[in-house]
Amino acid sequence: MGASDARGKEQEDDDLDPAGRGGIVVDPRVELFPQNPEDPFAVNLAATMVLDRQGMVTGWSGQAQQLTGHKVAEVIGRPAAGLLIDPLDRERVTGAVANCQQASGWFGVLPVRHRDGHRMLLGVRAYCVARIGQDCEWVVVGAPGEAVIQWETDRAVLDGLFSRFPVGFSSHDPELKILRINRALARVGGLPSPAVARGRRIADFLHPADAETVEDGLRRVLATGKPMIFTEQSGRSRHDPDQERFVSVSAFRMQDAAGKVLGVAQLVEDVTDRHRAQRRLAMLNEASARIGTTLDVAATARELVDVAVPGLADGVSVDLLEPLSPDTEDTPAVKGAMQRVAVKSLVPQTPVPAPVGAPVHVAPDSVQGRCLTDQRPVLEQPVSPTATPATGARAVMAVPLTARGHPLGLISLWRTRPEPFEDDDLILAGEFAARAALSIDNARRYTVQQHTALTLQRSLLPQQLPQPSAVEVAHRYLPAGATTGVGGDWFDVIPLSGARVALVAGDVVGHGIHAAAAMGRLRTAVHTLADLDLEPAEVLAHLDDLVDRLATGTETSGCGEQLIGATCLYAIYDPVTQRCAAARAAHPPPVVATPDGFAALADIPAGPPLGLGGLPFETAELDVPEGTLLALYTDGLIESPDHDIDTQLARLCDVLTTTGRTLQELASATIDDLLPDLPRDDVALLLARSQALPADRVATWQLPAEPASAGRARRLTEEQLDRWGLTDLAFTTVLIATELVTNSYRYATGPVMLRLIRDRTLICEVSDPSSTSPHLRRARPTDEGGRGLLLVAQLTQRWGTRYTAEGKTVWTEQPLPGNGIPPPESAGSTGPHGDFLRNVPMP
User: Fold this and answer.
1) Which domains, and CATH codes, for the chain?
2) Helix axis angle, 708-724 to 730-747, nearest 10°
3) How many Cβ atoms are within 10 Å of 499's Cβ, its own excluded?
4) What are the Cα distances from residue 562, in Å, to 488, 521, 566?
């Protein structure tokens, strides 16, 4: 090393140790005692003074000079008490300094006089220091009084945090070992004292799964420094793992002034009651949304048990009293039998509780019996043997189901878990029961109403369709689902004169009893109009007037709701001509499937719905060869949520062209193919396969309008009956034909048409161009005429008049021998004039 280097090194050493004595080297750039800047008594911040036993100042630091303004020369050798303002404080300090043998230290906040004269508070801590062979001395540390007071307050808060704070608090080292817990957390963990937890881990006191959750959160706080705030989680203790408990945890990382991580602290609050209250509120909201979504008693009961298990109970059963009419005002007898409609349990039971559908009988002294008798909720825990609805139940509640003042049954709730029911659980069960009872009562009332409407509808629909010789028929009817209600769909097969048949399908707007009642009115009107033998368009025009009167008049359709519209299809098939005349009022057109396997919608003008009024309907003529299938239906058959109407109609045509099935099988197949699920609307389907009347069973003659035609009619009729082997009917038939032909040439102009048809009855028809209808009248004993039509009415089973574009036709029907129909003398008339003619004596 050179001389210059040596001199430089020596100079550097002198700078570091001015005394040149070696030992501790003080570098002003280094903070020897780093302290928390918030600590007023930190070494680098506090004022320090030294007092002898007499209270004289023997030492005075620079921080003391800065704090009080007094310089060293002004205080050394003077009594420290002279700085105090209060004489009493002077006396106490002087006495405390003098008694160093009795006190090792003292502290306080004292008012002192600053050098500039203002009053200030000084916090002091005094420590007695003994010297060998000398009197003791006092080292006094001072700090601003306000800072000391704040510091002491903070220390008091920290002390209260561990001794009196009602919320759990703990501190952990970086390995998550417990440094300290407060008394509140010790009580939560079931510890006799906080000291027991020191040095142990959370898993020593919490259930392993819950402890792992807590420690995972604390590790994240240690790793990231991001606090954890109000995180709720399960906090079951090891000494009572079956007791449900929830805690809210907040945590922060602990570190010193230099930033070194010392560990983590957490605040643990028992929020079990609040969590249960929130869970009950959530279950109540869920119950509001899930209970009563359908108008079905069993479905509502299932919704109730699904909501209550497992949130409220481990098992729930719903038992209802025998259903009564909702219209009754009498309270049902409590001792009546009950039926189980729903049950759900988390724990397999031995023996199994009563299954759904089984009768349930309760003992009068049981929980359920007391609940039914008093009509109030009953809670029992521990459970007596008679109250146990299931093996292993530790707590049982029974809550009555009451709606509109009438008891409907009860629900039983039980727990097999050790956790008992609370009073709030009983209140929540009561809320469930109230909501379920109202929904069950509504479902019962709706069911009764639906049953009434369905019964009414079925009574108004044809119970058994006639089987005329003109067509072979099959039908299907499906009521709508429970949420839609009974509709007003109907169908009918009405035998007409001349072996013809009317096929009808209709649909009333709306659902319920009013729709069923309106359907009955329209169906009755159609039968009345059919007896008049009107054309299809005329029938619809009269129906349109009827619906319009019902909608605008004072009459209603049964439930205060007025009938506002309907659709209808009316078709007449004649097996003699093999033609069909049809008209429709906004009803879906029929499907016509020919014997050669072709199916399509019939081209019939749509027409307006019934009830609009003032709009015309059109009749269309169709050729219907023998074996042709006619399908009449309502819109419920072709409406589907998965397919459009065109697709459904194409499927309908495909099904109707299927071969190798009877008509009944074809009707079932149509329903199964187009409606795999329960329909949303009523469905009516009528299938009719046409049959032709053989030519040898029809005889037609045209006669001139002259008196000689009566004799020719007698001869032709007698000869035709002889060919058919019906000579037993010759006398009455000849008489009928003679009287009808005679009336025609007397009161009409133009040719007369005589036609005999041998069907299931013997039909005699006389047609003429006149539109005047013959009428029965009672002849007086002195009258020479007026008895012919009365004779006709007495000799026939039915008779009537129908009008055509060319005039009118008077027809009669007589039963064939051997077909089981009573002879005309005892049968009476069932035609349009039958009620008048019944029991009318022969003149």
Assistant:
1) 47-152 (3.30.450.20), 166-270 (3.30.450.20), 284-451 (3.30.450.40), 467-690 (3.60.40.10), 695-837 (3.30.565.10)
2) 150
3) 24
4) 13, 13, 12
pLDDT tens readout for residues 411-431: 999 888 878 888 888 888 888
Give the per-residue pLDDT at 535.
92
Work out the number of other CB atoms within 10 angstroms of the CB of residue 678: 12
The tokens describing 830, both together, are: 């069932």
Under a CB-based contact definition with an 8 Å cutoff, are residues 531 and 537 in contact? no
Decide: 407 and 375 in contact? Cβ < 8 Å.
yes
- Which secondary structure element, helix H or strand E, spans residue 144, and what is its range? strand 134-144
pLDDT band at 227 (very low <50, low <70, confident <90, very high): very high
Model confidence at 9: pLDDT above 60? no
Q: How far apart are CA 539 and CA 531, in angstroms?
A: 11
DSSP-derived 3-state class of residue 683:
strand
- The DSSP code sequence of 193-239 is -GGGGTT--GGGTB-HHHHHHHHHHHHHHHHH---EEEEEEE--BTT
Q: What is the DSSP letter of 714?
A: H
pTM confidence score:
0.57
Helix 788-795 with 730-747: angle, nearest 10 deg: 140
Q: Is the pLDDT of residue 782 over 80?
A: no
Q: At 301, phi and psi to the nearest 5?
A: -65, -40
Nearest to 408 by CA among 381, 374, 389, 433: 433
- Tokens standing for 355? 């299954």
Q: Which residue, 246, 248, 243, 260, is CA-closest to 169? A: 248
In which residue are the tokens 């040439």 written? Answer: 745
- Give the CA count within 13 Å in the CB-facing half-sphere of 180: 6
Q: What is the distance between the alpha carbons of residues 746 and 753, in angstroms, rounded to a whole number?
A: 14
φ, ψ for residue 709, nearest 5 deg: -65, -25
